[in-house]
Amino acid sequence: MKQVPYHANPGNACALACYAMVAQYLLPEEGITFEQLAKIASWQKGYVVWGFLAWKWLMDNGVHITDYDTIDYQAWAQQGTEGLRESTPPKEFEYYQANTFDLEEEGRRATLALNHPNFSYVQRTPSWQDVVAECKKPGICDITLNRHKLNGQQGFDGHRVVIIEITDSEVVFHDPNREGTGAYRKEPIELFRAAVEDFGAFELARYSCA
Question: Which pTM does this prediction carry?
Answer without folding.
Answer: 0.93
